[in-house]
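Input:
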Amino acid sequence: MSDTGSDAADAAARGTTAVEVVRTLPEASVARLPVYLRVLSELALAGRTVVSSDALAALAGVGPAQVRRDLAPLGPRGTRGVGYDVVALRDRLQDVLGLTHEWPVVIVGAGNLGQALAGYAGFADRGFRVAALVDVDPLLVGSSVAGLVVDPAERLEDAVLRSGASIAVVATPPGSAQAVCDRLVAAGVRSILNFAPVLLVVPAHVEVRDVDLSVELALLAFHEQRRAADLPLDLPVREGRA
Amino acid sequence: MSDTGSDAADAAARGTTAVEVVRTLPEASVARLPVYLRVLSELALAGRTVVSSDALAALAGVGPAQVRRDLAPLGPRGTRGVGYDVVALRDRLQDVLGLTHEWPVVIVGAGNLGQALAGYAGFADRGFRVAALVDVDPLLVGSSVAGLVVDPAERLEDAVLRSGASIAVVATPPGSAQAVCDRLVAAGVRSILNFAPVLLVVPAHVEVRDVDLSVELALLAFHEQRRAADLPLDLPVREGRA
DNA sequence: TACTGTGAACTAATTCACAGCT
DNA sequence: AGCTGTGAATTAGTTCACAGTA
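Output:
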């Protein structure tokens, strides 16, 4: 590569300056980073200072090669022969995932699920602050849930603007989810965690993640049924005509 | 294909008998089947009798080619030039997913989340019956949630055996999840939907599906952060030494 | 020695594009 | 004409196996 290298690469080769290189992170890896983060937080709390890809893999429930593939592009490379620095890696993950500052979140729907989410400790731990909890039901509005007063539905836009929330949770019945979603998007929300079993239609710049609990159970039922019949993933199919 | 075909294929060619053929269903397709089922159920309810892969794709939020790939192995093939028979396809999906009979489910943990799950209509709709709701907290035990009396933790095994549940939901704090899981498995549970943010260690014949709500939010935060900075999935990484 | 980082091989999943029915 | 079903091409993801390094 002689003299075809970039200025930056040359500088690095000369050992003078650190270089900014851009590494791409596969989406599949991104999806596992929060899990590593959780494990590393626990390890750090337990006083562990280094961890090998093998150990981390075991704790995260994946293969060691995968851990290395996932982490290598992040930069704070582990030390060969030793492992990864627990705290440095944890901090890097927090940084990459954007969990270094607080994220205000608006939850729409204060039914059972909305209330459960509002009180979920795992959110606060990771920097997600429930800025508002909104519902249409006059019986719920004004009541106190997890230290929050439930706001009436009219205040939805208000809550989003006031809190500056760019993330919202939809925990309404399926029938009202799309309308709520539209209002959230109009108010400036760009990321939605949707618990309603419907496809939310949103503009391209808005991201929706669906959590459909009955889908999860259905998948368990499928595999359960397979296991009971001792079949693999194959289906007997009637082919041809009588 | 002349005379190289199998006996079964010959029979089919002669048009005498239907043939049992085994088609393999990719795991990724399986994960989408419950979504198709939901859409088809809605369409059937709305009186729609046929649906094209294009229409179904739009409603399910995937591409039309993917719909066809996913459904083709199931057998009740659509009619070329027309589309899929809504009711026939819905029934076939229910059958394949094992949702033709009731599945008793035991929920462990009657906190906010456990209560929300116990009352979740989407479960009952799909044939999941909450057979028992169990908790350690003496304040909750005996109280009534969604028409169910909360059972004490000691009754866990009892509840599993009595109901014959092979599916359970773990909605306990992370600290007690593994112990609960062990007891469930010992009692005969083979599929677990886990809401606790920990890796459950189970024997090979047991399947666990994790739903980690803070992971979902973290992924939204990641993309949100990217979008704000207008970066793609790339990371600037400091490479080389000073 | 004991570990990471990564090219290379492999496997899975998606998308294209069109043949084949109805 | 209008659709499905599917080979073929493409892309993404995983795993292997080992070179490189502290």
